Amino acid sequence: MELIGLGVQWASGALAGVLAGSRLARASLGRAGDMLAGAIGGGIGVAFADAWLGLAPTAAPDTGTVVVQAAGGALAGAAMMLAAGLLVSRATRPDR
Predict the structure, then answer these.
(1) Spatial separation of the C-alpha atoms in residues 92 and 96, rounded to whole Å
(2) How far apart are CA 73 and CA 43, in angstroms?
(3) Which of 17, 63, 70, 93 is the most buried (most CB within 10 A)?
(4) DSSP 3-state assignment of 75?
């Protein structure tokens, strides 16, 4: 289950990163950067939330678990892409 869950988290995070990057052009890192930041955020964000909330992995994947992992991966992936994009755009902005 852990590999299936991690794959769902990475995929939903990457998709959310690309979607957020296309909607927020100012914070976009480019399609590949948005996808990478989203996938990293999806994997790490849900793993952190699972550890913080004390959720135990289940032996067999069920629909509810997969949906929760996909939603959590998407939220964490979009948040990571947005944070990384804003940091990069802030760091590369010329001083005024």
Answers:
(1) 12
(2) 7
(3) 17
(4) helix
The residues, ordered by sequence, that sit 6+ positions from 69 with a Cβ below 8 Å of its Cβ are 5, 8, 9, 12, 46
Question: What does pTM read for this prediction?
Answer: 0.82
Which letter does DSSP use for residue 21 in this model? H
Cα separation, 13 vs 19, in Å, equals: 10
Q: Where are the domains of the chain?
A: 2-87
Please write the tens of the pLDDT for every residue from 41-69: 998 887 787 777 766 566 667 788 788 88
Dump pLDDT digits (tens) for 4-41. Answer: 888 889 999 999 999 999 998 888 899 999 999 999 99
- pLDDT above 60 (res 96): no
